[in-house]
Amino acid sequence: MDRLASQSTGASEKLLDIRNLKIEATVYPPGEAPRNIVIVDGVSVSLERGKVLGLIGESGAGKSTIGLSSMGYGRGGVRITGGEVILNGRDILKGGKGGLRALRGREVCYVAQSAAAAFNPAHRLMKQVVEASLKHGVSSRAEAEKRAVNLFRKLSLPDPENIGKRFPHQVSGGQLQRVMTAMALCSEPDLIVFDEPTTALDVTTQIDVLAAIKEAIRDTGVAALYITHDLAVVAQVADEIAVLRHGKLVEWGDTRQIITQPTQEYTSQLVSVHEIAHEEHAPGKAAALSVKNVTAAYGGGTIKVLKNVSVEIPAGQTLAVVGESGSGKSTLGRAITGLLPPLEGSITFGGRTLPGRLADRSKEDLRQLQMIYQMADVAMNPRQTVGTIIGRPLEFYFGLRGRERDKRVAELLDKIEMGKGFVDRYPAELSGGQKQRVCIARALAAKPSLIICDEVTSALDPLVAHGILQLLLELQKEEQVAYLFITHDLATVKAIADSIAVMYRGEIVRYGPKSKVLTPPFDAYTDLLLSSVPEMEVGWLEKAIAGRRMESAGN
Amino acid sequence: MLTLKNIPLSAWLGLIVTGLFVFAAVFAPLVAPFPNAEIVGDVWEPMSAAHWLGTDNLGRDLLSRMIFGARTTILIAALATALSFTLGSILGFTAAVIGGWFDQTMSRGVDLLMAIPTLIFALVVLSVLPGNIVTLILVMGILDSTRVYRLARAVAVDINVMDYVEAAKLRGEGRGWIIFREILPNALSPLVAELGLRFIFAVLFLSALSFLGLGVQPPEADWGGMVKENKEGIVFGIPAALIPAAAIAVLAISVNLVADWILNRTTDLKGGRGNG
């Protein structure tokens, strides 16, 4: 640290100073000449030693691009075309390749969103954690490994002495994310770039990782850029927050100020809690679907993932199934659709008992039961146009052809608030929210009585997700369709559910109308889930950790 | 979308040369200066104004034989490739979609077929069966389809687990729709690139068979057979055997150039409209 401190001569106490940064990329639109687009336009932010700056914005706002520019890196053909990135008193963009090589992994380290994809599966964790330290000659292998073990302990990983001997697939996702943080800290850098480190994790795991990261930052005195789209998360770890939109800086200020007194319209939109007006329906109407004592297993009956599960969805209402990953909530959806025939128990749908296997079900049953997926971009055939995607169920179930079909497709596009111009688009030419809307239209085209929504908003930005939820509720009113809403996000559940089932390790631990399930006294697991949802309040994290009654499953 | 300016130089070269060969093959009777099997001069005459490439071992016009040879070679190779692709890809896709015992039987059967060296297998089969063009095409097509099957199955297994295929299955679509409308369009780019390569292998395979005397039978002309007929001339410094050999090489290279370009154009994994 002394060596580095002496480099930054007294002129500025700033560790990182990004001035007027401009980043461009070349796009190749179909049928037109390639042209340049500006991804980041004239952004200036700076960061003092040991402080944490949160970069926040929706996808496409340029937050990751700015984060990576602090290492002089442009991802996938992106070019830094203007401005200065001053780190430790020198402009890293002028240092050439050798300068960048000396910088990356030594002065600036990176923590990726998906640790699972960022680790090399063929090497043990320890080898990868100490690699940068050895490459840069920071310390000997023995010293580096000692430091790594200390970091593992600080990040509260289990068995810190020996976890480094494991391979990446032998630890859970939340643990891997913490190992990656240890990897970044191991070479004792001045700055760490955290690129959405908790976005892919469960809320219950997220809180552990967040606490570990926060503590490690505090104890090592490293500065950090924390990139995320979740304002509530960044409020827990950042000293300052910069809000970005369309590659421009919207607002930059102290965390408390951004959260409590935003000066810009867009920031206050992000900050304000989005209430969705939804009146809970009283149960008691005829059940659209009832699942009785269903047990299901993978691997020929050896691994039971659903144990004696019974739920009921009244016609035109919404049942939300909540739980961590691995709790069996998606498997419940698969059992209902027939993709995973249950071992025991029965599924009754519209008064009929459904055959367990998909192949044995009638076309009418299939029509009545539709599904919407989490990842809208892989749920649509990339080689079919929107018109074909929405039109096919019409053709298939109702035999509509030609002009009649086109008319109905236009009606459906209108329902999902998209214009006629989208008929000839391919999925790759739509935004994330539009893709999910098309998937909703495809499900609606079959005029179903139940739609299974598997994490439909978790891959979307908060504002876009909000729009999708509102659309789903409106459609429910118009079409009297019931939803089975599978999610890990309790905020979503609070907004749209009529009844809630909480799942834990394949069993339903709490089930009933929303008002009852969300009223104390809670069982330990529901309490953990509820208390893990980040709130937009400085200091929430410490309070939540202190108040916990049980550990998360750590998936 | 596809403008002439976007085509790279190498692809242009490939397209022009391949086009020339195909043109010669299709219009052989009109283009060739002499009939295919007529003796028009002395044995192994050098190149002259009357015989641009000279004459062959029986005194037939070499250029005319080359042109008629292109016709036979390209026709047989094209039909064999078409057969191998239809058979291989449909069976490969079906195996991937159905899975289970069907997949196992098919895949192990293909393994068995591939374990036997192709050339020896073809020689044995062709020496037993009556030697005509139809048998030749069938044998070449079926043997080649094992390679296509492997590729098609591997690609389809990946696509088969995508959510959009699951969505189609949940809709209740039949296997036909899933194979031809969901999987095929997404598996097309690796298959098209493979098509060029397999066509070239078919040309080489046919030439090898003809050279060994089990392919196209005289007096029909084909390039492999022509190399065989004229190979004794090489010791006397006569290039008649090298010309059909060079034609095989040039066709192979030019088709590959086109296949490379197509692969480049279609490997945009995002689907939809390809990049320029």
From TrEMBL, chain A:
Q: Where in the cell is it found?
A: Cell inner membrane
User: Which CDD domains would you find in this protein's record?
Assistant: ABC_NikE_OppD_transporters (cd03257)
Claim: Nucleotide-binding is one of the keywords in the record: yes
Identify the residues that the record assigns to the ABC transporter domain, covering every copy.
21-271, 289-530
Q: Which GO terms describe its cellular component?
A: plasma membrane
Q: What is its main location?
A: membrane
Give GO BP annotations, semicolon-separated.
peptide transport; transmembrane transport
Q: Does the keyword Ubl conjugation apply?
A: no
Name any one GO molecular function.
Answer: ATP hydrolysis activity
Q: What name has this protein been given in UniProt? A: ABC transporter
From TrEMBL, chain B:
Q: What residue intervals traverse the membrane?
A: 12-32, 74-102, 114-143, 195-214, 234-263
Q: Name one Pfam family in it.
A: BPD_transp_1
What GO CC annotations are associated with the protein?
plasma membrane
Which BP terms from GO are recorded?
Answer: transmembrane transport
Q: What is its main location?
A: membrane
Under SUPFAM superfamilies, the record lists:
MetI-like
Q: Where in the cell is it found?
A: Cell membrane
Q: What is the recorded membrane topology of this protein? A: Multi-pass membrane protein
Please tell me whether the keyword Endoplasmic reticulum is annotated for this protein: no
Q: Does the keyword Flavoprotein apply?
A: no
The record's keywords, sorted A to Z, are: Cell membrane, Membrane, Transmembrane, Transmembrane helix, Transport
Q: Which residues form the ABC transmembrane type-1 domain?
A: 70-259
Q: What is the annotated signal peptide range for this record?
A: none
The UniProt similarity line reads: Belongs to the binding-protein-dependent transport system permease family.
In Swiss-Prot or TrEMBL terms, this protein is called: ABC transporter permease
Whose protein is this, by species? Pseudaminobacter soli (ex Li et al. 2025)
